[in-house]
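Sequence, please.
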């Protein structure tokens, strides 16, 4: 019932308040708490300041999301780079091992004679 009331409230509210309410849902606020926050914002800031505050809050949240994605991307790049370096070192060691003269092979090779 609480979710239905919240969805109905979101349909009635202007879009800037919907944005705030949807972000508050992620922090596990109930519909009563969200309504209380919206009413307090109206009383404190007045209806003319609410859109400006909502825009600023939206920009702040988007900046946080963008920074979080940048950090995740950088961590993944670093992990991939370390994996590539490790595989390259293993491959290099294997190639060097394969190119080393083998003692077994040296005993069965005939000496090269000059004609």
């Amino acid at each position: 019932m609480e979710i239905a009331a919240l969805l109905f409230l979101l349909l009635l509210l202007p879009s800037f308040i919907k944005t705030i309410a949807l972000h508050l849902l992620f922090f596990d606020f109930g519909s009563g708490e969200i309504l209380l926050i919206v009413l307090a914002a109206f009383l404190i800031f007045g209806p003319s300041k609410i859109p400006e505050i909502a825009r600023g809050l939206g920009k702040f949240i988007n900046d946080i999301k963008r920074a979080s994605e940048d950090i995740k991307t950088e961590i993944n790049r670093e992990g991939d780079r370390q994996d590539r370096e490790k595989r390259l070192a293993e491959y290099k060691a294997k190639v060097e091992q394969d190119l080393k003269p083998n003692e077994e092979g040296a005993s069965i090779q005939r000496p090269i004679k000059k004609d």
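Helices lie at 2-12, 15-25, 31-45, 50-99, 103-108.
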